Amino acid sequence: MRRERTRALILMVALAVLATVGPRAEAATKLVSAYAAISGVFGGLWMAQEVGAFARQGLDSSLVYISSSTQIAQAMLSGEVPIALMGGEAVVNAVLGGADMVFVAGAINRPLFFMVVTPDIQRPSDLKGKALGVSRYGASSDFATRLALRHWGLEPVKDVAILQLGGIPEILAAMKAGGVKGGALSPPTSVRARREGYRELVNTADLGFFPHDAIVTTRAFLRDNEETVRAFIKGYAEGVHRYKTDKALAIDVLKKYTKVTDPELLEQTHALTAAVLEDPPLHLDVRGIQAVLDFLTVPKAKTVKPEDFMDLRVLRELEQSGFFKTIR
C-alpha cells in the first residue's frame, strides 16, 4: 500500500510538471529526485530547486519526499526515482544484496542526529528495557540510534527495543504519546524537542563518520544518462553554496519545506545544518561507508571495500574542470 502511495505521488508530481511547463522548458531534461526526511539536512537540495539552479543546468526538476532512505532505495530499484539524496546504510545494504545503486557525490559525512529522550531518562543506562524510535529500519536514524547505543555499552534490540515510526517528526510525536522514550532526531525536530523540555544525550555527529546523506543513483542510469547526473550534481552544488551563504533566503526555504514558522527554530536549524553540509566539491568520505560495513553482520560486508560502492568519476571531472570554483 505504501509503495502504491509513493508511486501515485511521483506520478502526480510528473503530471503537474507536464501541465505547467511552457515552450522554453520543454527542451529541458525532466528529472524527478527524492529526499528522505523533513529535515534541514536537505536544505541544499531544496535551495537548488527554489533558486533555479537545476533549471540553469538544463533540468526540468521536481522533488518528491519519500519518508526514509530504505523506501527511496525501493523506489529507485523499481525505476520510479532515478536519483536521490539519501542515507548511506540503505545503499550499502541494497548493493550487498545484489542491487544496482551507487554513490556519486557526498552531502553530509557525519550522522547529524541528536539522541533526545524524555525527561525521566537521566543517563543512557536508564534506557535499558525501554524503547527508542527510528524512521525506518536501515534508515540513517536507525544507524545513528545503534551507533549511540553501542557507544554507551547497550546492545540494540537486546537491551533497548527499536521501533520504526515512519519519519523524524513521528518519533517526537511518539515520545509525547508515551510510545517510546526517545529517538534520533534531526533539525528542526531536534531543536523543537529540546525547547519543549526533552533531554539531549549526545550529538551522534561526534561519534564518527557516516554518509548521512549523499547523491545516489544506479550504475545503469549513470551509464545511460551521464550528462543528467552531471547537471544534477552541478545544480546541487550551487544550492549548497547558496544555502550556506544566503541565510535569509535559506530560512525562507526551510520554512517552506519544513512548515516550521518559528524564527528561532529556523535560525538554529540553519546554523546546525549549514555547518555540516559539504562545501563543493561535495567530498564523499570513505570512512563513512566503512563505518556502515563495520556495523553490518552479513559476511559479505567483510569482503568488500568502500570504493566498491562509489563512482566519483563525474565529480572528479567537475573538480578538475574548475567548475566548483566558479560558484564560490
State Rg.
19 Å
**End-to-end distance:** 44 Å
Q: What is the fourth-level CATH superfamily of the largest domain?
A: Periplasmic binding protein-like II
| Mean pLDDT score | 94
Strand content: 15-25%
Count of alpha/pi helices: 14
Largest sheet: 5 strands, mixed
Shape: globular
Structural class by SSE content: alpha/beta
The CATH C-level name of the largest domain is: Alpha Beta
Residue share in helix: 40-55%
Total beta strand runs: 10
By CATH, the topology of the largest domain is D-Maltodextrin-Binding Protein, domain 2
The CATH architecture of the largest domain comes to 3-Layer(aba) Sandwich
Keywords:
328 residues; alpha/beta; D-Maltodextrin-Binding Protein, domain 2; five-stranded mixed sheet; 16% strand; globular
Brief rundown of the structure:
By secondary structure, the protein is α/β, with parallel strands linked by helices. It is built from 14 helices and 10 strands. Residues 17-25 have low confidence and may be disordered.
Give the topology, please.
Elements: H1 2-20, E1 29-35, H2 43-50, H3 53-56, E2 59-65, H4 69-77, E3 83-86, H5 88-96, E4 102-108, E5 114-117, E6 131-134, H6 140-151, E7 161-164, H7 168-177, E8 182-185, H8 189-195, E9 199-203, E10 213-217, H9 219-224, H10 226-245, H11 247-258, H12 263-276, H13 286-295, H14 313-321
Parallel strand pairs: 1-2, 1-3, 6-7, 6-8
Antiparallel strand pairs: 3-10, 4-10, 5-8, 5-9
